[in-house]
Each structure stands twice: as structure tokens, then as C-alpha cells.
């Protein structure tokens, strides 16, 4: 089981099982929502994701018609997003995990929107457009 929490500790969650994939998204929306060069996102089955504290603190913002981004209304930490295209998944923000994750990122995506100060120069696979199927 993996555990995660927001910056203020008000929102806490647990994931049954492991994370199997991490994608680093450089799109302008993830940059703004995270305040940095990219967001580290991991798909998790909805049925394995449990908010165990602070559900009342969670708020969502629809960054597009198809995507809701959930964050702590007290401290602003991004927690997860949900896309209409993958209603059975949440895409957690890996930086909020408290548990060791045990894997490294798999790829970058939406580098077509990366910031000009982004220093990404590793050898991970790169995708210019939306990530490969999130399943
Ligand atoms: Zn918080
Ligand atoms: Zn993004």
C-alpha cells in the first residue's frame, strides 16, 4: 500500500497496490497547476484509490471540459486529476506521495508545450502529444 498527503496534511489518501507507470507532463496546464517545469503523474484505478482524511477539503477545477483537477483547498497541493476519457482512473500527482514509489519515470509527454527554461535532457522516451493510453 502507498500513502500520500497534501502539504498541510489535511488530505490523506491510500493506494492499494503499486504504481506501475509515471509520466512527466510538460503541458502548460500542468506547469501552472504545479508551479514548476512539469508534473509527475501516475494512473491509478479508481477502485484502488481511497481518500482517508480531508475529503471535505478537496476541491476540483475543470481545466478543460474533459478534465477535473483535484487539490487541497487549504494548502493548494494538487492531488489528482480525472479525465472523462478514462473514468475508471485517477491520475495522482506523484510528488504528494509519502511512501517510496519504487519505480522511476517512464517517459515525458507534451514536450511540445515545455517552458523555455526546462532543462529536461535525460534519455527517457518522449511524446509530443498526449501520453499513450493511460490504461
Ligand atoms: Zn492541504
Ligand atoms: Zn499536463
Summarize the structure.
This protein is 5% helix and 39% strand.
Walk me through the structure:
The chain has 135 residues and is mainly β. The chain has one domain: Metal Binding Protein, Guanine Nucleotide Exchange Factor, Chain A, CATH 2.170.150. It is 5% helix and 39% strand. The chain has 1 helix and 11 strands. Strands 6-7-8-9-4-3-10-11 form an 8-stranded mixed beta sheet. The longest helix has 7 residues, at 28-34. The chain is globular. The two termini are 20 Å apart. The mean pLDDT is 94. The site of one zinc ion (ZN) has 9 residues, from loops.
Characteristic terms for this protein:
single chain, 135 residues, mainly beta, Metal Binding Protein, Guanine Nucleotide Exchange Factor, Chain A, eight-stranded mixed β-sheet, three-stranded antiparallel β-sheet, 1 helix, 11 strands, globular, binds zinc ion
CATH topology: Metal Binding Protein, Guanine Nucleotide Exchange Factor, Chain A
Give the name of the CATH architecture: Beta Complex
- Number of separate helices: 1
Terminal residue distance: 20 Å
Kindly report the average pLDDT value.
94
- Indicate the structural class: mainly beta
The helix content is under 10%
Q: What does the largest sheet look like?
A: 8 strands, mixed
Number of strands: 11
Radius of gyration: 14 Å
Label the overall shape: globular
The residue ranges in which pLDDT falls below 50 over 5 or more consecutive positions are none
Widest β-sheet, arrangement of strands: 6-7-8-9-4-3-10-11
What order do the SSEs take from the amino end to the carboxyl end, as H and E? EEEHEEEEEEEE
What ligands can be seen in this structure? zinc ion
How many domains make up the 3D coordinates?
1
Q: So what's the CATH class?
A: Mainly Beta
**Beta content:** 35-45%
Amino acid at each position: 500500500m502507498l500513502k500520500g498527503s497534501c502539504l498541510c496534511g489535511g488530505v490523506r489518501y491510500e493506494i492499494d497496490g503499486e504504481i506501475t507507470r509515471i509520466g512527466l507532463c510538460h503541458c502548460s496546464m500542468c506547469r501552472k497547476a504545479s508551479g514548476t517545469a512539469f508534473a509527475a503523474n501516475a494512473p491509478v484505478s479508481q477502485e484502488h484509490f481511497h481518500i482517508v482524511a480531508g475529503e471535505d477539503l478537496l476541491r476540483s477545477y475543470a481545466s478543460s471540459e474533459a478534465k477535473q483537477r483535484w487539490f487541497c483547498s487549504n494548502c493548494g497541493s494538487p492531488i489528482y486529476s480525472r479525465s472523462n476519457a478514462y473514468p475508471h482512473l485517477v491520475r495522482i500527482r506523484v510528488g504528494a506521495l509519502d511512501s517510496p514509489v519504487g519505480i522511476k519515470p517512464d517517459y515525458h509527454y507534451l514536450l511540445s508545450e515545455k517552458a523555455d527554461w526546462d532543462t529536461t535532457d535525460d534519455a527517457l522516451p518522449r511524446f509530443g502529444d498526449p501520453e499513450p493510453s493511460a490504461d
